[in-house]
């Protein structure tokens, strides 16, 4: 057990940061992805290129922005254009290595629903904002990382509406549907880290967060989850926590 404390948000931000490799192009959204990208740029991936949906590319952030449209995202940017340029010349051109996504429901193949809850999407029980740019990122990034609250209702056997395609029905179904690029790589939740098997593309438990067990994570997931090789999620280092708290988010905008 660590002799120092950390919060769940800090654990998730550090885990998200570790998904980014040096030199990669990262499509980051507001919140945890932004924390993770900034932390990665200040630790193991100083040459990662952060781009934002609002139109900035290769930002060198000094302060944590409140959103992707915050003027602070323009600091040090190689390009400050618009949404169309980012999606056309970077994402569609296949230049995004990792894109961060989220949603209301995620199934065993990493398909995401951020549109509606209910059997009939024309008369939903709950209506969400929809895709935004997530459908494009899910289709066109080289790989995606999904951030989510871990609740059984958020991980159903089948999502109510397909907003952002993952591995579709598993196996080669994504490729057969014409999506020849990318696919979900990892799901970082409030309870665990999950990845996808190389052939079936079914989700499996990579690790469970400290204080939990693999069985507890499985019990809070709405489909069978392979847990046999799961380990405990590596905790943040003291240096990662120092940078996260003192440099990335000293005002505790997202770190609570």
- Roughly how many Å apart are the termini? 22 Å
- The number of distinct helices, counting runs of at least 4 residues, comes to 7
Tell me the strand order in the biggest sheet: 4-3-2-1-5-10-11-12-13-14
Could you list the spans in which at least 5 consecutive residues all have pLDDT below 50? Answer: none
Rounded to the nearest angstrom, the radius of gyration is 18 Å
Q: Return the string of H and E elements.
A: HEHEEEHEEEEEHEHEEEHEH
Q: What multimeric state do the chains show?
A: single chain
Total E-strand runs: 14
- The helix content is 10-25%
Largest sheet, described in full? Answer: 10 strands, mixed
What is the 3D shape? globular
Calculate the mean pLDDT score and round it.
94
Q: Tell me the structural class.
A: alpha/beta
Strand content: 15-25%
Give a written overview of the molecule:
Belongs to the 3-oxoacid CoA-transferase subunit B family. InterPro entries: CoA_trans_fam_I, NagB/RpiA_transferase-like. Pfam families: CoA_trans. This protein is an alpha/beta fold and 256 residues long. The protein is built from seven helices and 14 strands. The protein has a ten-stranded mixed sheet, sandwiched between helices. A two-stranded antiparallel sheet has the order 6-7. Strands 8-9 form a two-stranded antiparallel ribbon. α2 links the parallel β1 and β2 (49-51).
Key attributes of the depicted protein:
single chain; 256 residues; Ketoacid-CoA transferase; 7 helices; two-stranded antiparallel ribbon; alpha/beta; ten-stranded mixed sheet
In a few lines, what is going on in this structure?
The chain has 256 residues and is of the alpha/beta class. Helix content is 22%, strand content 19%.
């Amino acid at each position: 057990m660590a002799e120092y404390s950390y919060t769940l948000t800090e654990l998730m931000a550090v885990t998200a940061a570790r998904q980014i490799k040096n030199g990669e192009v990262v499509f980051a959204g507001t919140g945890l992805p932004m924390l993770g990208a900034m932390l990665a740029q200040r630790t193991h991936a100083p040459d990662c290129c952060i781009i934002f949906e609002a139109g900035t590319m290769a930002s060198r952030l000094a302060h944590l922005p409140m959103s992707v449209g915050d003027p602070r995202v323009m600091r040090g940017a190689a390009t400050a254009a618009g949404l169309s340029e980012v999606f056309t010349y970077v994402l569609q051109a296949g230049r995004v290595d990792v894109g961060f996504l989220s949603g209301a429901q995620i199934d065993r193949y990493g398909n995401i629903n951020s549109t509606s809850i209910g059997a009939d999407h024309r008369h939903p029980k709950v209506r969400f904002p929809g895709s935004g740019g997530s459908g494009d990122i899910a289709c066109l990034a080289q790989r995606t990382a999904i951030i989510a609250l871990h609740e059984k209702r958020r991980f159903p056997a089948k999502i109510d509406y397909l907003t952002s395609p993952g591995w579709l029905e598993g196996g080669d179904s994504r490729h057969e549907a014409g999506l020849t690029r990318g696919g979900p790589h990892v799901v970082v939740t409030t309870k665990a880290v999950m990845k996808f098997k190389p052939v079936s593309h079914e989700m499996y438990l990579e690790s469970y967060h400290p204080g939990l067990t693999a069985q507890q994570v499985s019990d809070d997931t709405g489909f069978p989850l392979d847990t046999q090789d799961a380990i405990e999620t590596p905790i943040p280092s003291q240096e990662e926590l120092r940078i996260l708290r003192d440099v990335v988010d000293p005002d505790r905008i997202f770190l609570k």
